[in-house]
Design a protein that fits this description.
The protein has 427 residues and is an all-alpha fold. Helices cover 79% and strands 0% of the residues.
């Protein structure tokens, strides 16, 4: 199929939006469907691992393998996208994630434990590769000027999928069982793969639009330094990626601490606070995306680096306050603010990395994914150990406090860079 214009404006119909935007909407719809299956399985697989092995340690090992696979995939994502089209990466990562679920559905029980860890490896690596391919190819799909809108739409689709996946997981597993849940997940990956296969998706090296990427010799030097060179070329971008990694560490703290805090609030219904918090978080996230999209349409601008820094400050503060023991109404407002700020940081961060040229852009996104997986993985280990001896508020406070400190440094660095650019030249 033909490629979408790099400007995202070719094939425009008089009565509708540009073709690139219509294609991207369909792609996000497919991504949202597969994300629903991912979040459904995130609950179902953890419960299934515990039921199959009978050990809580196995759940931690399962998550560690998944994060480790994502870490490695981030290191090779840039090199892969320099040689393959984004469409092929998006397609085959969905095919692989669907195929690896087949043994869990059809294989004998003796195969289940090794199959679980195969699922963990494939889910971690393919999930990372899919996100790097999608995010790094947005400018080629819809055009530079519409990347903020595209990122916001993508985050909205994922947030809706998260709410639906988490909300329905318990019902699906309890009513129809694990096998049916895995079959539903397989079906969602099939829908996404079919969507990608039928659409003209731009981006990536082989078959992409960037001639410099296509003409690169096959015996190229190792790709890892390309990512660091790209970060060094843009003022503050390396610090921005580092802040994203520390933010991932903070994210691990509230993810681990929420069930503990929820059980302390209501031992009879330990899932109540967690479920309500994440639902309100998603509502705030989706509301923020609507504001971001309207802002982009009205001004033609997207959220920049400063928005990422301020959003991180608000988000980290809100997550700390969520554990402070405020009344339910106040905590609900805090959850909404945390979701809105989280949505702003996601769009601002992704949009800023997309300002890089097409070649190093995929490498930078791959390195970013590696840093995020490292931050989250290290955080989960440290937080799990700390929660044995420290309150959830203290654990979340120091982890998100680290993000706040680095965000303040980043904002000062951003302000100094802006001041140098706007200062009048010496005569």
């Amino acid at each position: 199929m033909g490629m979408i214009s790099a400007r995202g404006r070719e094939g425009t119909d008089a009565a509708g939006p540009p073709r690139g935007e219509r294609v991207f909407r369909l792609l996000v719809a497919g991504y949202a469907v597969s994300s629903y299956g991912t979040f459904l399985n995130m609950v179902a697989l953890n419960l299934f691992v515990y039921e199959t092995t009978g050990r809580a340690l196995a759940m931690g090992l399962f998550m560690a393998v998944r994060l480790g696979a994502g870490f490695v995939a981030g290191l090779v994502a840039g090199a892969l996208l320099a040689r393959r089209s984004a469409k092929s990466v998006l397609l085959w990562t969905n095919v692989a994630q669907g195929a690896v679920l087949v043994p869990l559905i059809a294989a004998p029980e003796s195969w289940r434990t090794p199959s679980l860890f195969a699922v963990s490896v494939v889910a971690g690596s393919c999930g990372t590769l899919f996100m790097v391919a999608l995010r790094s190819s947005v400018p080629e799909m819809v055009g530079e000027e519409r990347r903020g809108w595209a990122n916001s739409l993508s985050v909205t689709g994922r947030s809706l999928a998260m709410v639906a996946g988490f909300a329905s997981a318990g019902v699906v597993v309890s009513l129809v069982g694990y096998t049916a849940a895995f079959a539903v997940d397989l079906g969602t990956f099939a829908v996404c793969a079919l969507t990608v296969a039928l659409l003209p998706v731009a981006g990536g090296g082989k078959g992409g639009r960037d001639g410099a990427v296509r003409e690169r010799p096959r015996r190229a030097r190792p790709r890892k330094p390309v990512a660091f060179a790209a970060l060094a070329a843009v003022p503050g971008l390396g610090l921005m990626v580092a802040l994203r990694g520390v933010d991932a560490l903070g994210s691990s703290s509230h993810n681990a601490a929420l069930p503990v805090h929820s059980a302390a609030l209501d031992a009879a219904r330990p899932a109540l606070f967690v479920s309500a918090f994440w639902c309100l978080w998603a509502v705030g996230n989706i509301a923020a995306q609507q504001v971001i999209q309207r802002y982009g349409r009205r001004t033609g601008r997207s959220a920049g680096a400063a928005a990422f820094g301020y959003g991180t400050c608000v988000m980290s503060t809100a997550f700390v306050l969520a554990f402070a023991g405020f009344p339910a109404a106040a905590t609900a407002v805090v959850a909404l603010i945390a979701g809105a700020a989280d949505g702003l940081t996601e769009v601002a961060y992704t949009s800023h990395l997309q300002t890089l040229p097409a070649g190093p852009r995929a490498h930078a996104f791959g390195l970013s994914a590696t840093v995020e997986n490292l931050g989250f993985g290290v955080g989960m280990i440290a937080v799990a150990a700390a929660l044995e001896h420290t309150s959830p508020l203290a654990v979340v406070g120091w982890s998100h406090g680290a993000a706040l400190v680095l965000a303040a440094v980043f904002l000062v660095r951003t302000a100094m860079t802006r001041a140098r650019r706007t200062a009048p030249s010496a005569p």
